[in-house]
Structure to design on (146 residues):
């Protein structure tokens, strides 16, 4: 009784109640329906197991799909953040370059150095964005397959 599921315990209880109501095991009427039910019990059990297996697979697939969808949304947010950073860096690089053109030589060298440093960061962020775009592409494909 300890390893039985609730459904098994309920069915066991029903059988015991029916045997008691008939007056004992020897007095249970053996009808055609009872014999047919006993003969098809194994096939019903197999069908039940297949149904449970299908439910479990569907549940696992749904969980996997949700996980991939969450990863995809995270990657899209990361791409948007990187895009915003790239836009700001690009604007700052242009402003510093324009400002450097209008300054005297000593100040121009400082502004160009800062502009080049920002330009290097911009290249790094664009490379990171390419990686994120590849992740998005692979996650989208994986989501289509699931």
């Amino acid at each position: 009784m300890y390893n039985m599921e609730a459904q098994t315990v309920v069915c066991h209880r029903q059988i015991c109640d029916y045997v008691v109501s008939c007056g004992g095991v020897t007095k249970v009427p053996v009808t055609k329906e009872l014999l047919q039910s006993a003969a098809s019990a194994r096939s019903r059990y197999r069908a039940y197991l297949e149904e449970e297996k299908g439910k479990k697979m569907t549940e696992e697939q749904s969980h996997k799909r949700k996980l991939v969808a969450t990863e995809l949304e995270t990657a899209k947010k990361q791409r948007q953040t990187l895009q915003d950073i790239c836009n700001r860096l690009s604007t700052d690089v242009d402003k510093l370059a324009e400002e450097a053109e209008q300054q005297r030589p000593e100040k121009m060298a400082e502004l160009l150095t800062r502009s080049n440093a920002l330009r290097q960061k911009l290249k790094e962020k664009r490379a990171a964005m390419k990686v994120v775009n590849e992740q998005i592409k692979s996650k989208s494909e994986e989501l289509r397959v699931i």
The longest helix spans residues 41-101.
